[in-house]
Write a structure and sequence with these properties.
This protein has 112 residues and is an alpha+beta fold. It is 19% helix and 27% strand. It contains two helices and seven strands. The strands form two sheets. Strands 2-1-6-4-5 form a five-stranded mixed beta sheet, with helices on one face. A two-stranded antiparallel sheet has the order 3-7. Strand 1 and strand 2 form a beta hairpin. The radius of gyration is 13 Å and the shape is globular. The two termini are 22 Å apart. 30% of the residues are buried.
């Protein structure tokens, strides 16, 4: 059995079990969450972008592909995206809390 990490998604108050090597986005879809996206995990649209609120040390480092997309996002926003990550690329090794507006259980039950 592979190890899992726990990601809390605010403001929905949902807890995700993220498998080793699995992105937060993949875990969200596997567990039945609606997660904003246009490109469905291709690291192109930035619709899946989230903000890491807590647990930064448990978030794996930004890879080159994600770094390039985040750089473009910073230019569009004309500001820092320091705590911003792409859910489709973010993998974690421990407890992390993120903020992603629009992420919610498909059945509307935040306890799901």
């Amino acid at each position: 059995m592979s190890a899992t990490a726990r990601v809390r998604v605010e403001p929905a108050g949902v807890e995700l079990d993220v498998r080793s090597g699995e992105s937060v986005f993949e875990a969200a879809l596997r567990q039945g969450l609606t997660w904003p996206t246009i490109c469905y995990g291709q690291a192109r649209c930035t619709a899946c972008a989230l903000e890491v609120l807590d647990g930064h040390p448990a978030a794996d480092p930004v890879g080159p592909e994600e770094q390039g997309v985040l750089r473009q996002l910073a230019q569009r926003r004309r500001g820092s995206v320091r705590d911003t990550r792409l859910a489709c690329r973010l993998t974690v090794t421990g407890a992390v809390t993120v903020e992603k507006k629009g992420a919610k259980p498909t059945d509307g039950d935040p306890a799901a």
